[in-house]
Design brief:
The protein is an alpha/beta fold. The chain is built from nine helices and twelve strands.
Length: 279
């Protein structure tokens, strides 16, 4: 699959009211867990049309940060959070759950074990924020689910049992369910998990198309070269509480990356694309 334009069924339901207003704003956001500082206070805007990559070594706090940006750490959490996250003009904590689910969608890093359901049923779960409590999916909802499956290269998989799929196919089903949710803001934790090279590029092309259609995208990645290629903004966690946020070219320097990953790296350019190699 090579996505150059999104199907009309996956378009944003309504235009963003104010193009000058970020979809997501973090101000003075800082995270601590068990007395350990995951990130010091920092600021971030995610705007329509923008693609943000969150990078850092294992255990640096990337998943925790993404969940905080999704507004999922409330009172009683083991995480100590300060600062504020806003969706549009309102604090994330003030959004009703159903309304928040229509605005922002989260792709988790770990998927639940497959259960006895077929692929189409699983993707239709993404439509639940748009349905009433006892409302069933309409023909329009099914059309959106079919469009989402086609977008991730799984057209014709409707009746396949989820348990018969490979890890990469299940990952794409989960992404299709998120597409069917039609949020304005996409937050994805390692969306390339279990994917081969072809599908990694295809998924990133799809996410780029989502951004181009007026969505905001923020994702946790491990591949520095793909982050350099597809993200316009980088959030780099150094594993010791430090955070660097800025344009991709300014953040992805050998010095910053070597410090963040604890190993010296060198940067090369091959046919205009950045490549980072360990020394």
């Amino acid at each position: 699959m090579n996505i150059l334009a999104l199907p009309a069924a996956l378009a944003c339901p309504t235009p963003w009211d104010d193009a000058s207003l970020p979809l997501l704003t973090a101000r003075g956001l800082a995270l601590q867990r068990g007395g350990r500082e995951l990130c010091c206070p920092f600021e971030l805007d995610v705007r329509a049309g923008q693609c943000v990559a969150i990078l850092g070594r294992n255990g640096a706090g990337k998943t925790t940060l993404l969940h905080a940006l999704a507004g999922l750490h409330g009172e009683g959490s083991a995480l100590a959070l300060s600062g504020e996250v806003r969706f549009g003009q309102r604090p994330a904590a003030h959004w009703p759950a159903r309304q928040a689910a229509r605005f922002r969608g989260l792709l988790p890093q770990r998927q639940p074990l497959p259960f006895a359901a077929n692929v189409l049923e699983t993707v239709l779960v993404g439509r639940h924020p748009h349905l009433g409590r006892w409302e069933r999916e309409s023909d329009a909802d099914t059309a959106i689910a079919h469009a989402a499956l086609a977008a991730v290269g799984l057209a014709g998989f409707d009746e396949r049992d989820l348990r018969t799929l490979s890890g990469g196919e299940r990952q794409r089903v989960t992404l299709a369910a998120l597409l069917a949710q039609t949020p304005r803001l996409f937050l994805l934790d390692e969306p390339l998990n279990h994917l081969d090279l072809h599908h990694r590029i295809a998924v990133l092309e799809l996410l780029a198309a989502l951004a181009a259609s007026g969505r905001g995208v923020a994702m946790v990645l491990h591949d520095l070269e793909l982050a350099a290629r597809y993200a316009d903004t980088i959030v780099l966690l150094d594993g010791d509480g430090g955070v660097t946020v800025g344009p991709t070219a300014g953040v992805l320097t050998p010095q910053r990356l070597s410090h963040a990953f604890g190993h010296p790296l060198r940067r090369f350019e091959i046919e205009g694309r950045a490549v980072f190699l360990p020394e």
